[in-house]
Amino acid sequence: MTVGSFVFMLHSHLPYYRMAGMWPFGEENLYECMSETYVPLLNAISELYEEEGIKAKLTVGITPILAEQLNDEHLKNGFVEYLDSRIAAVSKDLERYPDPKVEHSQHLKYLAKYYFDWFNHIKDSFVNKYNKDLISAFKKYQDLGCIEITTSGATHGFSPLLATDTNLNAQFKVGSDTTKRLFGKKAKGCWLPECAYRQGYEYIGKDGQKKWRPAIEVTLQNNDIEYFFTESHVIEGGNSVGNRRVVGIYGNIEYIPLPQREATGYDTYSAYWLPDAQVAVMGRNDRAGFQVWSAADGYPGDGVYREFHKKDDKSGMNYWRITSPNTDLGDKMLYDPVLAMNQVNSNSDHYTTLLFHLLNDHKKATGKEGLLMVSFDTELYGHWWFEGVEFIKQVIRKLNNFVPEIERCTAGEYLEKHPPVDTIQIPESSWGQGGHFYVWLNHLTEWMWPIIHACEKRIIDIVSKYEKIPEDKLLHRALNQLARENLLLQSSDWPFLITTWQAKDYATDRFNEHVERFSLIADMIESGNINDEELKKIESIDNCFPVIDYRVYLPIEEGKIPQQEAKLAPLYK
Question: Among candidates 510, 488, 459, which has minimal Cα distance to 69?
């Protein structure tokens, strides 16, 4: 007898780093996540299936712009070079330790050997096991039923703030088509970039007449997307995310909640239909999610786990443990992998017990089997929380072997077995500060949006003149590259990095570079004077979405998005 279902969702995303710097921002960020997260995750999925016969049943979101980078030859070769540089650096540590002048140098030598073996194992996996092709590896385990891959907006554009439905549709059409091209099947689900949602709304059109702009889910349905995910407070009401600090890239933001909403009467133990299209939404379970992602109260903050921020000044190796959140970097204790793995074992025991009790208590209270959906940034596991991938592996194994009462399934599998029965109207929302749009639209970023909106209008105006693909191949290339640059400048990463001050100058420069390339190409098209060498130079850098069709920007009539018929459940309970 089961007590309910568990959906473990991992959202994988990085901005477009290809040929845009190396360190501290640029390609090395991608290589770090490949070595610490994506390759170890594939190894865990592979080992569970091939050695133990366990299908991981993970829902793995891979944004199209990340998938394009994982599929890129320049970045594949760059990753091998990165691994070689790490192996060379730690080899020098093996030579300089033990050093009688350095305290605990014998343990430092032990850690150097640990990392030497670790990096060589990652390289062997990437080169020999996966043939430098992580996309094919993810596809393999998708086709075996171990994981389900979801899509997203092509470049993670912040959907609610795009001014035109044509551009909104382009983000999800290019994204969905890219996922299908790379992974062999159309994704049923998606991750809304930044979990950002808006309802449909009435507005006054250019002709002075009232018009209706459809909700986000209409665009999703038009691209055959059947479900997405959201935060717990979006479903339940009450307080938004609140004053919490989280592990990882978002840890520098302190969440300031909006005024408390009234409780909706809904909970996250079910999935729901949206009112304007037959698209389902799942809310993250707050308790099960908070137990992991909270920097203060979650597992990753334990003192025995590896310290992310302190690195050896010569090799760059992470030789220290967290020790305590209040310990200065200079006073951190040395890392002990054995102690860390013991703690993973303890934490995974606690987590599987927590999941069982949450579902069992819900079933006792309601008489119904419930859903526990937890969603995290994939990069939390391995990159930020070094031991996190092992935690995932142990949780899956223990649920499979010892907690058969919990049905492990992907998001799509859950919805197929348990289609929603209720429809819910969710509010304008995001994962960000206060649960609204502040992180992406504020006094530091407000200058960006008129530029984005102007580019939206300009590409529609240009493309509307070329409903038929031109015979001039140079012009055709220019139109397609214009579409790429428009998608790239819309990335939500640029305003996010500006707001958080993590990479303010880098993000500003990247945004401006894509705007300049967009404007240059648009000027060339409109003047009828396209410079082949200039175009080739841009194409060589921004080569994502190689089969893009610029006609995705043919204008959709204002306020008249074609909507498929939807058989909807009754609104509200």
Answer: 488
